[in-house]
Design brief:
Strand order of the largest sheet: 1-3-2
Strand content: 25-35%
Helix content: 25-40%
Number of helices: 2
Number of strands: 3
Shape: globular
Radius of gyration: 12 Å
Largest sheet: 3 strands, antiparallel
Length: 75
């Protein structure tokens, strides 16, 4: 399945919290849901849950998620 990289604008505190949860094996539900919603906005259908892969160092901080999508299905 192809992956779609999603970047979500965030603030440093939220990014730190998401990273801490990820390292503890937990999920930050609000940002995961926002990544899934962004996939739908781009006209793709998610094939799996978004996977947190890290943050950017710029301003604003961005949360990076990879989401598997179906090739032939769009909304």
């Amino acid at each position: 399945m192809p992956l779609l990289r999603i970047q979500l604008d965030s603030d440093r505190n939220t990014a730190r919290r998401v990273l801490e949860l990820h390292q503890a094996g937990k999920v930050h539900h609000e940002t995961r849901d926002a990544a899934r919603d962004e996939v739908w906005r781009r006209g793709r259908t998610p094939a799996a849950e978004p996977v947190f892969i890290g943050t950017t160092n710029g301003e604003p901080v961005r949360l990076l998620y990879d989401v598997e999508v179906y090739l032939d299905t769009t909304r």
